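Please review this one:
***
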Amino acid sequence: MDHEKAHEGLTPAVRAAYLERIGVADPGAPTEANLARLQWAHLRAVPFENLSIHLGEPVVLDPAALVAKVVDRRRGGFCYELNGAFAELLRSLGYRVSLLAARVFDRERLGPPFDHLALRVDLAEPWLVDVGFGRFSHQPLRLDERGEQADPQGVFTIVPGGPYWELDVLMDGAPQYRLDPRPYPLADFGPTCWWQSTSPQSPFAKGATCTLPTGDGGRITLSGHRLIRTAPDGTRDERRLTDAEALAAYREHFGIVLDRLPAQPTVPAQAGEAVAVV
């Protein structure tokens, strides 16, 4: 990767604003420890959310638009947006970043190609970095390690999968997604992103969701009008909110200011059914 091209995406002012958005005053040099610090800061500050789909907003896979949504509009996004924007920040800080495509497991069935966007970051070793999969690893994972990797979120393993060169990423033994290790340009994710954003068959059409990990190892989620607090041991406390309470919850818990609530899905999800966190 050309060193100058790796730095031409963000201006110093935008880079500083992005770091302020995730609460990192000094990102330091490109190291394993600093990469892990940036990933956790991003996960804690920028929610995984699919609100644009239910607000009638287009999802634009343009690097400047992705960064502006996170930084200027103080929003989150789903995988293409979050990892796409984070890649721009990391490149501006001197990291070597590639975009990787994955197919998400739904039990035993695999989703379509380019179902998910994750990041490869090359330091002395290659690392899998993902801030766009909802409940997933808090820290980068070694891409070339085939043994267990402990993380605050669970135990991860990366093993050969499929008939070719793919890698399956497992969390606590359960397959999460099948990773294509070849790099792709952002534009190649456009067709599947469009389908995820517009098709009634997309898992994201089931309803609006917005979620963040909490500092104690739990998670807080607003799914439609349901505010769900998940404790580190997996126990859940769920409360149904009024319209006014839901708007206030977006502000209080996720820093998202809306003038209206996302539209309800035409075919709502069943009680307790979660929108896929891809």
